[in-house]
Design goal:
With about 750 residues, the chain is mostly beta strands. The protein has 8 helices and 42 strands.
């Protein structure tokens, strides 16, 4: 032992008690990855944060008499990072902060669990924390004990995930046809056929248009949005046709062994086109060369550059030299991961811009209903210089009368087949678009209960045509039968008929003669008014509608007197209408109640032409009534004695009633009159009616309430006459003289 102690200096770093996780997001959607892309993981489990002590000792001074000890810490944690829905094929590259590794590697420190259906829990958790051991079936994830270094923060991990459907493309990316088929299968459309899918698959394969799930998908997208985006990027139409999907490549040049469609469907001429609003057969829009874009930029993720976002451009140098640079908006093609494919897309966009700058619009009748987007036609219209111009159908809309409005885009010149259908070999049936519509049959005009309206007092109008050519009518109204204004349009025949037999108050069955079809319902439909009919002031709903051999309908299971109408007997011939969307419904002002109006119905045909003039149609007179408001029920009243603090006695009259079964009921309004004792004796002695003598003045307002109201401080000895009026949410109320007393 020496005579002097050795000096010992200890330096200890701060010890961190927890670590930071920046890649955990609760409740985020689990993506499904088709193809290959780079994604960051989402921490779904972490535990066992551990500090590891490191000592380093050095000696200094004469003879090493001073010993210095430095204590530092490094940290580890057990982590599971969720990737995507499994099973996946594997992991390629892994980025940890700025370092790049190829999986598997000891430096990554994590193991892949590919997300199979029989996936087992991570053995580490099973051994350390069995109560937390979950298999995460169907979820691909990475798990490991991560070296956090000396700052206790989790590094930024990014993984190149090799997902699903790799065998449909080049082993890295996916054929778009299989991508679309997979998406539709996932949303439950496995049984729905996609016509043209194999042809589209071949086109994508030969043109090397292969794709992978975008790396920037951070939220869920609808299947429709995904499919439309893929079809647009790969230059194809996809649409619904005859209970199935159809997909058509738009390309017009051969690619490898794939050949474009060259089949003309129709040769369309002036004999086929219907006249448009401006009288033209075909109208078109065309951009001048000076207005065309000449630079097309495509944004993509470059797999060779660590999936960084890059852009490539395709330029029409000749057009730029002549007219200057005109760049188009950048196309986001985040399904594409190679520069070669991005350049192809930019070139395709430039070609479409150049050869599809003419857009034609024309109308056809229903005989051309075979046409669909992607079909080829030729257009001939001498008025604008078209002579068998080849065009591709770009869009078709059909109106209520079967008229097809078509847009088509021009195609580059080339060799095309003869037309598949020749509609000019035989004469097509003549269609008279100006056929006489005929008069509107006698309309049914009525005012329904307020519970059926949106504003309280409404007039409902049911109309139908007398001829098959009747397509609807414009309804006009007048206060004086001279000056008319339009009140609305009826576009469908109302189901309007009559009772074929008498209907008693107690009947739950009736027979009706009616145009159109009546469908059966359930007992609940009848109870809720889903099969509602109006019969001469009464609301009736039925359960079963049975067509009889004479063409009439028998309605069974009828619910009578609905919506506060009164069930009454109806004679044969009483008018009946099915209350549906075919009826015209118009509001009536309170101040118009009691007024007389006139209505006229100007018919037009099924092509919305040939409308009648006001001077040629009959006027129907109608008086506007106040709609029916049901009375309160069970009106009762009694005296209530009160003694005030000063000893004075007071008597109140408490009035109770039962509100009507009315959805728009607001309150009951109490009105009263008084009669003194002397007047009462005169009434009894002389037989004078109480309404004529003794009652003091008019009705006095006593207040309101849902089902009760109180008249305070009633006069002892006086007789009170009470009336409770029903008031609805629209401000309409019954009269005291007509209310329960």
């Amino acid at each position: 032992m020496g005579l002097f102690k050795t000096a010992n200096i200890v330096s200890r770093a701060d010890k961190i008690s927890n670590f930071t996780v920046s890649t955990a997001e609760y409740g985020s959607a689990v993506m499904e990855l088709l193809g290959t892309t780079r994604i960051s993981g989402n921490v779904i489990y972490y535990d066992d944060f551990t500090a590891h002590e490191h000592r380093e000792t050095q000696r200094s001074g004469k003879g090493g008499g001073v010993k210095s000890t430095t204590i530092t810490y490094t940290y580890t944690a057990a982590v599971i990072m969720g990737l995507c829905e499994g099973p996946i094929k594997g992991i390629g590259r892994v980025w940890i902060d700025k370092e790049l590794y190829q999986y598997p590697s000891e430096k990554i420190g994590m193991t892949l669990y590919s997300g199979t259906a029989d996936q087992q829990p991570w053995p580490y958790v099973v051994g350390k924390h069995p109560e937390k051991a979950l298999p995460y079936t169907g979820l691909a994830y990475m798990a490991g004990v991560i070296d956090l270094g000396n700052n206790a923060s989790l590094p930024n991990f990014n993984f190149e995930v090799q997902g699903k459907l790799l065998d449909t493309g080049d082993g890295v990316d996916v054929n778009p046809a299989d991508y679309i088929r997979y998406i539709l299968d996932k949303v439950g459309l496995q049984e729905v056929e996609i016509v043209g899918l194999e042809n589209y698959r071949k086109y994508c394969r030969e043109s090397d248009f292969l794709i992978s799930t975008p790396a920037d998908y951070t939220s869920a997208k609808t299947a429709r949005d995904i499919v439309n985006e893929i079809a647009s990027l790969t230059n194809a139409y996809m649409f619904w046709s005859n209970d199935r999907f159809k997909i058509v490549p738009r390309a017009d040049r051969p690619v490898g062994e794939w050949q474009p469609d060259k089949q003309i469907v129709y040769n369309l001429t002036a004999d086929d086109f219907l006249e448009q609003n401006n009288g033209a057969c075909v109208t078109y829009s065309r951009k001048d060369s000076s207005e065309l874009y000449n630079r097309f930029t495509v944004e993509f993720y470059n797999r060779e550059n660590a999936y960084e976002k890059e852009s490539v451009s395709y330029e029409d140098s000749e057009n730029i030299a002549d007219y200057g640079l005109r760049p188009a908006s950048t196309t986001a093609a985040h399904y594409i991961y190679t520069k070669k494919r991005a350049v192809k897309l930019a070139e395709e966009l430039a070609r479409r811009n150049k050869y599809e700058r003419n857009k034609y619009t024309f109308k056809l009748d229903w005989s051309f209903c075979r046409l669909e987007p992607g079909d080829l036609v030729t257009l001939t219209d001498a008025n604008i210089g078209l002579d068998k111009q080849v065009a591709m159908i770009d869009g078709i809309t059909e109106d209520a009368h079967g008229i097809l409005s078509v847009t088509a885009i021009s195609r580059a010149a080339g060799d095309y087949s003869e037309a598949l259908y020749d509609v000019h070999e035989v004469d097509r049936p003549y269609v008279d678009f100006n056929a006489e519509p005929g008069d509107t049959d006698t309309p049914l005009i009525f005012q329904p209960p307020s519970d059926l309206t949106s504003s309280g007092n409404e007039i409902w109008i049911a109309a139908k045509g007398k001829k098959d050519a009747w397509g609807g009518c414009t309804v006009f109204v007048s206060d004086n039968n001279t000056n008319y204004r339009k009140v609305g349009t009826i576009t469908n025949n109302a189901r309007l008929g009559t009772l074929s037999k008498n209907m008693l108050v107690s009947d739950t069955t009736c027979e009706v003669k009616i145009n159109g079809m009546l469908l059966s319902g359930t007992a609940q439909d009848a109870e809720r008014g889903n099969t509602l009919c109006w019969v001469d002031g009464e609301c009736i709903s039925y359960t079963t509608a049975t067509m009889l051999s004479n063409g009439n309908y028998r309605l069974d299971g009828c619910r009578r007197g609905q919506y506060n109408t009164t069930a009454t007997a109806h004679n044969s011939g009483a008018r009946l209408v099915r209350c549906d969307e075919a009826l015209l419904k118009t509001e009536v002002r309170k101040e118009d109640v009691g007024k007389k109006i006139w209505l006229k119905f100007c018919s037009y045909n099924i092509f919305s032409t040939g409308e009648q003039s006001l001077a040629d149609v009959q006027a129907y007179e109608y008086t506007i009534n106040a709609y029916y408001i049901p009375p309160v029920q069970n009106l009762t009243a009694y005296n209530r004695y009160r003694q005030l603090a000063d000893g004075v006695a007071r008597y109140d009259i408490v009035v109770n009633w039962t509100p009507p079964n009315m959805a728009t009921y607001l309150e009951g309004q109490l009105w009263y009159k008084t009669n003194n004792e002397q007047a009462e004796r005169m009434v009894m002695a002389e037989g004078v009616p109480a309404d004529e003598m003794g009652w003091q003045g008019g009705w006095l307002y006593g207040g309101s309430g849902k089902d009760q109201c109180v008249i305070p401080q009633a006069i002892v000895g006086d007789t009170y006459r009470l009336a409770v009026c029903t008031k609805d949410e629209y401000g309409m109320a019954t009269s005291p003289d007509m209310s329960p007393r």
